[in-house]
Amino acid sequence: MTLSYLKISLVLVLLASAGVLAQEQAKTSAPVKPYGIKSGYVKMTSNLGLTRQLWFDDFGRLQREEVTLAMGGFSQSAVVISDGRWRHEFTPGSTTGNKRAATAAAGPGYLKLSEADRKNFGITDLGTETLAGKTCNVYQMSKPAETKVWVYKGIVMKSISGMQGNSLELEVVEIREEKVETAKFKLPGNIEFREL
Q: What are the backbone angles phi and psi of residue 167, rounded to the nearest 5°?
């Protein structure tokens, strides 16, 4: 098994784990408006060739996320647009996509972390640190994967997740608190979405 294959597999497993966490979080206390910032843009990069861009408005109720994995000549992208009620997921250039209730895949509720969430995911506070000029709360999470996160006003600024001796490190390289045009959250008209 090649190292590139292992890295791609690790990224996909960790992203799937994050999805499981998000679904479990939605059952407990995920906020409808998960951020303490009205609107803005966040760009993160990883040690494994992953780039994540996030545009949001209305404190995170409206979101557009673009994720690209590029390594060893392989490149794959995905887009998720959420209006707080529905998440629309698709691959750029495709004519089909998926639609699911936003509560089935809401992001972790770090803005208002409940005691139930702390217990369910083994979350402990590690204090504060400064990243990109922002004072972040730092948390350690033991479930579903061992993860350390730095959070600023509900936005994950950095995360380190490990599995089987490999680690995925994502870190903000750009964050802007600014108005985002509503066109950014508009669904493409040429894609048919299947409800899951």
A: -135, 150
